[in-house]
Amino acid sequence: MAQVTVPRWAPAAGRPFSRRAWPIEVFAVDDNSVQLAWRGSPRAGLRIEVGGGVAHPVASPQAELVVSVYRWRGAPPASGGDHYEQPGSGPGTGVERPEVRGKGGPGADVRARRDLAGLLHLSGTRVLDPAWPSGPGSVVIEGLSPATTYDIVASADGLPKFLAGRVTTVQPPEGRLLAQLAAVTDIHIGEKHFGIWGRIWDQAALRPGSSPYPVRALTAALAEAAAWGADLIVAKGDLTRIATSGELSTAGRILASSPVPVEAVLGNHDNALNVDMRAVLQASGIRLSWGPRALDLPGLRVVLVNTVHADPRYHSGHLPPAAGLEVAELAGEAPTPAMVVLHHPPEMHRYPTVYPPGIPFAESTALLEALAARKPDSLLSCGHRHRNRRYSHGPLVIAETGSTKDYPGVWAGYKVYETGLLQVVRRTSRPDVINWTETTRRAMNGQWGRWSPGRLGDRCFGVTWQ
Ligand SMILES: [Fe+2]
Ligand SMILES: [Fe+2]
Questions:
Q1: Which of 69, 280, 310, 342 is spaced 20 to 30 Å from 31 by Cα?
Q2: In this structure, which ligand is nearest to the CA of 267?
């Protein structure tokens, strides 16, 4: 059974949850670096020290939540609603004026109007975290030693040095570093708003010259993964919203513009309209295949697996047992360990316990049993659920990684060693991207921000093959 090691971090007492402090959190750790992230910060003079490394991040503008709410004429007004005042909305009346502005707390600005269909449109903006004068940000501090505990010491103008927490780096597997690759997933080019009812909008995209948030998030994630040192980037599906040819060609163009080679598999969102997605993506130079295919890096065989259901009405995965066997054979043929890349995670229980459903249990069992027998030194890297999780099946390690374009907005890096590998999931830190992904934290009444990140050990861990 593969041996898994995880990093650790502990916030100093009272942090990062104090509303008055600079709320620094450790998001990613590997053997020699730590990524720190915050939802708000002091305005100037930011300074963070970890070991001998010092960073002076520049404070970014506050993030602004842009929300719209639709409700039918004459219906009782919605209650609560993200702290927005609902102007003129007495019980059962609806709003009579064509446009009303009101205040909904600090930094909020709310408008209400009817559209031509008679729908009442309530929309508003609100500063996401008004307790801090500046917005979300992130910094990576490198040059740390493996398996070592460090104090995270921060300060800013008007904020004396304080201990934000302590972090312990990962012990890497023994042997030389042979290769680095990265993964992006759930890109959803074409998506225009986020949340269960699509209520969270991207204010930046309304500015002239700005790209939609899925485009910004993917472009920045590819650039950051390449700068990190990836030799190859795999895109793990859900490249588009509904797979129009325009969305597919945009996805293909951006993936093809990556400074390092990109390989892709499809997700359930890439098969909705019977568009020939392979032809559109191949026109951009992105290869796709229906059957499993393998490529070899130094020290690792990567097996790319298509798990999309042939019927576009199904969002769950599909991997016939014969295809699962083929995956295991491909992995087993290599003299090296294997990483199996697929969109849908395997279902680990007879009945799905997590939404959205992955590969059905019987098909998952066939894949996992065959893989455990033919190539026990395997990691499965999946997407689809827009969250970060790690679990195991016998000797196999299974990792789900989060979407590029919604909270926390990540890409995954893999360092391949002679005796194992390290996974590190980092937030995409470009200011116009982290500003957007922070706002999506508020989806599902804030539950999205608790659900999607997973624990540090879900995102960052070392695997030593046995
Ligand atoms: Fe997705
Ligand atoms: Fe999906």
A1: 342
A2: 2
Same domain, 115 and 139: no
420-466 pLDDT, tens digit per residue, is 999 999 999 999 999 999 999 999 989 999 999 999 999 999 999 98
Tell whether 52 and 101 lie within a shared domain: no
CATH code at position 8: 2.60.40
Distance 134 CA to ligand 1 centre (A): 30
- Token match 């070899």: residue? 296
Q: What is the pLDDT of residues 202-222, one digit of tens each?
A: 877 767 788 999 999 999 999
| CATH number for the domain that contains residue 456 | 3.60.21.10
Q: Are residues 238 and 112 in the same domain?
A: no
Distance 81 CA to ligand 2 centre (A): 28
Q: Are residues 291 and 392 in the same domain?
A: yes
346 CB-near residues (< 8 Å, 6+ apart): 358, 359, 364, 367, 368, 380, 382, 393, 398
Whether 387 and 263 share a structural domain: yes
Compute the distance between CA of residue 263 and CA of residue 293 in angstroms, rounded to an integer. Answer: 11
Single out the residue of 47, 55, 52 nearest to residue 157, CA to CA: 47
In terms of pTM, does the model score above 0.70?
yes
The model's pLDDT over 135-188, given as tens digits with 9 standing for 90+, comes to 999 999 999 999 999 999 999 998 999 999 999 999 999 999 999 999 999 999
Q: Is 342 exposed, middle or buried (0-12, 13-18, 19+ CB in 10 A)?
A: buried
Domain that holds residue 74: 64-127
Separation of 87 CA from ligand 1 center, angstroms? 36
CA of residue 344 to ligand 2 center, whole Å: 7
How many structural domains are present in the chain? Answer: 3
Ligand nearest to the CA of 186: 1
pLDDT tens track for 367-382 = 999 999 999 999 999 9
Residues 112 and 160 in one domain: no
Q: Which two tokens stand for residue 359?
A: 């590969």
φ/ψ of 226, rounded to 5, equals -65, -40
State mean pLDDT over 357-369: 97
Q: How far is the CA of 188 from the centre of ligand 1 (A)?
A: 7
Write out the residues surrounding ion ligand 1, Cβ under 5 A. Answer: 186, 238
Counting ligands in written order, the one closest to the CA of 272 is 2
Q: Which ligand is nearest to the CA of 382?
A: 2
Ligand 2 mean position to 384 CA, how many Å?
A: 4
The Å distance, Cα 307 to ligand 1 centre, comes to: 13
Same domain, 352 and 402: yes
Residues 55 and 95 in one domain: no
